[in-house]
Amino acid sequence: MVSIRFLGHSAFSIEGKGLRALIDPFISGSGVAPVGVSEFKDRNYIFVTHGHGDHIGDTVEIARASGATVVTNVEVCHYLAARGAKCHRMQVGGVYTFPFGKVRMTPAWHGSGIVEGDRMICGGTPGGFVIEVEGRKLYHAGDTGLTMEMKLLEEEDIDVAMLPIGGNFTMDVDDAVRAVGFIRPRIVVPMHYGTFDVIQADPEEFAAKVPETTEVRILDIGDSTEI
Ligand code: NI
Ligand code: MN
């Protein structure tokens, strides 16, 4: 059984056989996370979709405290490794088999620059992940607009897709509904909404618009679900 816990924004904890992961651990700065970073000393993997602060979040601190391997693009790895995180470098389109299962890095239409003071550090190409564990396939889209590449994921038989619905920086509700039509996941979990003024969206509206062939699970912050 694979358990998925929503930590607010785009942050999730994923636990399955051999995997105690975080995705985009924006925790101390989000103002909405139900737990502190000290909760995650047992992590063995952290997936980071791109270099923006609301996705890198507390990656360095958690990676250093736990010894977790950070999986992200080459450029964000370069930045994080210089700050003491152990990293596994991937790039969009790449697939690698980890001890717990296979991971594919998927494309995202977005940016990935890392802001430090008034500097912008190159964060490479943004992405998402298809993570396989216990025979289940989880897709975390990262921050992205609607892309035709999502259509390719239909062949992957995705069990659960975590999709942004907040608009402005990413897909809004209607585009996320179209993404569900492309991907045809068994379950969809909306994310990246409500945290900032410009990404207000109603997950119930999303749930009402998604076709019945996909189950919508709206997770309250702190809630877990199992697949
Ligand atoms: Ni972003
Ligand atoms: Mn974001």
Structure description:
With 227 residues, this protein is an alpha/beta fold. Helix content is 17%, strand content 31%. The protein has 5 helices and 16 strands. The strands form 3 sheets. Strands 6-5-4-3-2-1-16 form a 7-stranded mixed beta sheet, covered by helices on one side. Strands 7-8-11-12-13-14-15 form a 7-stranded mixed beta sheet. Strands 9-10 form a two-stranded antiparallel ribbon. α4 (173-183) packs across α5 (203-209). The protein is globular and about 45 Å long. The relative contact order is 0.16.
Could you give the topology of this structure?
Blueprint lengths: L2 E4 L5 E5 L2 E5 L21 E3 L5 H4 L2 H8 L2 E5 H8 L4 E5 L4 E4 L2 E7 L6 E3 L2 E3 L5 E7 L2 E5 L19 E5 L8 H11 L3 E5 L11 H7 L5 E2 L7 E3 L1
Bound molecules: nickel (II) ion (NI) and manganese (II) ion.
The site of nickel (II) ion (NI) has 6 residues, from loops.
